[in-house]
Amino acid sequence: MHKAPAGSPPLAGVSADHPIALVRSSSLPMLVARELERMIVAGELPAGAKLTESDFAERLGVSRGPVREAFRALEESGLVRLEKNRGVFVRQVTLAEADEIFELRAVLDEHAGRRAAQRAGAADVRELFGLVDRMEQAAARGDADAYHVVNLAFHDRLVELAGNAKLLAMYRRLVNELNLYRRAALDAAGTLPVSVSEHRAIVDRIAAGQAAAAGRLLHEHVMGSRDRAHRAREQAIERPAARPPIRAAAGRAQVSGRKRN
Fold first, then answer.
1. Residue 242 pLDDT exceeds 90
2. What is the pTM of this model?
């Protein structure tokens, strides 16, 4: 007797070794990991939050196996940490660690910007300008969430244009880790228009084939993002002191999706 793939209802007339069943089985943990990644990057699962297999299996309508595999994938990508005998937690990035990541990312971005200016064709430049236009529209609406998504897509595409798979893999892990620290910076007043202007200037240099200038602007952009993230963090640390403790407790209960008795 054949068994259905873990976390999936049985497929009528399809054996477990059928290609459809295999694809479904192997892709389910990936889909779970993508949803958890979205929730973490969006701030729905804050840094330090404990994640349990049973909670997310119930929430996402799957068995615990795909959730367990998704946790392992997220650990490899730098978004969660697995602690023996304690469980899985959304990673907390310290100020010192964030500074190290920003410095390394600035170097990688500078190199990627130089390479992109040398390799990008007309269609690539149009694509980058299109992403900047979408960021500008989000900024005009004051929609930091939409801006964040397009901003990630912009930088990821730019590093893709560098044509180095190892660089891209390293960059994506650093971005995942940094998102745990810097997301709040985009909510600060006046940040979005400044960021849009910086991105447009970068693409102008890439379009002109000015490799050194494109790289320099990207380095400055990343270090400017670091400064904005630091300021946002300082403001966030100051604000919670004025909140009644019960509100923080209520927020934690909401994240877990369970009511505390």
1. no
2. 0.69
